Amino acid sequence: MGLFDKLKQALFKTGSILPGSKPQESNAPVQIEEKIIINEEFFDDLFEKLIKADVGLELSEKIVEELKSSAKEKEISNTEIKNKIKDAIKKIIGPYDYKTINTNELEIFLIVGVNGSGKTTSIGKLANRFKQEGKKVLIAAGDTFRAAAGEQLDIWSKRAGAEIYAPEDIKKPDAVVFGSIEKAKKEGFDILLIDTAGRLQSQTNLMDELKKIDNVVNKNTDGLLIEKLIVLDATIGQNAISQAEIFSKVVGLTGIILSKLDGSAKGGVVLNIMHKLSLPVKIIGTGEKLDDIVDFNLDDYLEGLLS
Ligand SMILES: Nc1nc2c(ncn2[C@@H]2O[C@H](COP(=O)(O)OP(=O)(O)OP(=O)(O)O)[C@@H](O)[C@H]2O)c(=O)[nH]1
Ligand SMILES: [Mg+2]
């Protein structure tokens, strides 16, 4: 299955969000595209479906309003209306940088987020992907708080075939991070993935600890590529936005990994995140397995959302 199909399958198990669209039958004769009637009912229907897809009230209203001003036709083909909806969404979101992660020299990924969002799992998946690309990958066990964290990371690193840096005698996460950066530089690693403990934005001591980790990263990575990614659980809806805002104040995030966009999660939260934050969604987690990960691409995403 191609990446696009996989993304579509993961995001839109619930089916099309486009009112009036029908699934195509594989052996159906070529026929003239059915026209869709554009009236209040159409817009109401679209609004309801956007809400159901987790796009959020405010943004769904904006999309429908924008579409009302651009779709004046009484009747329109499915393809045409789909393009108009896409254009309306893109206009509201504004210019969006959805470049995928690019790795040509040592690149460091600092992975942060609240408890259980999917940090360690995402690190395992990323490690696997980079290994498949032939990269030399080191994982730093920066979660020294939770007893089982090191073990869990060890399992993932073995699955991915990546090396792990988890010195038993170092208990402070910033010291682990420092050691891992030194090792990655000295031993010519291409990728360093830094796991961190889950923390709530209200836990001041843990947020201070994260600030220390961030300082170590900033001080020791001159000239290197750094991605500071927050892992957001797609199933938590609007909370994702406030989490990203607060963590961004502490570590200056460069992007988002949106996990758990499989199961019952609807992809609309992606649009709201792009609308509210000037942070790109870079990676999407689509399951619990090693290869359940895809790069985010806005055009593919909208195509999937509206098909
Ligand atoms: N369905 C699904 N489950 C996921 C995904 N990513 C992570 N999970 C699950 O979410 C749970 C938490 O994942 P972890 O990777 O341990 O989360 P974490 O952020 O490292 O958690 P802490 O270290 O405790 O803060 C696990 O049961 C994972 O299997 C995903 O993309 N889809
Ligand atoms: Mg973890």
Describe the 3D structure.
The protein is α/β, with parallel strands linked by helices. It has two domains: 3-20 and 34-93, Up-down Bundle (Four Helix Bundle (Hemerythrin (Met), subunit A)); 107-306, Rossmann fold. The protein is 45% helix and 16% strand. The chain contains eleven helices and ten strands. The strands form two sheets. It has an eight-stranded mixed beta sheet, with helices on both faces. A two-stranded antiparallel ribbon has the order 1-2. Helix 9 (239-251) links the parallel strand 7 and strand 8 (255-259). Helix 7 runs parallel beside helix 8. The longest helix is centred in the first third of the chain and has 16 residues, at 78-93. The radius of gyration is 21 Å and the shape is elongated. The chain binds guanosine-5'-triphosphate and magnesium ion.
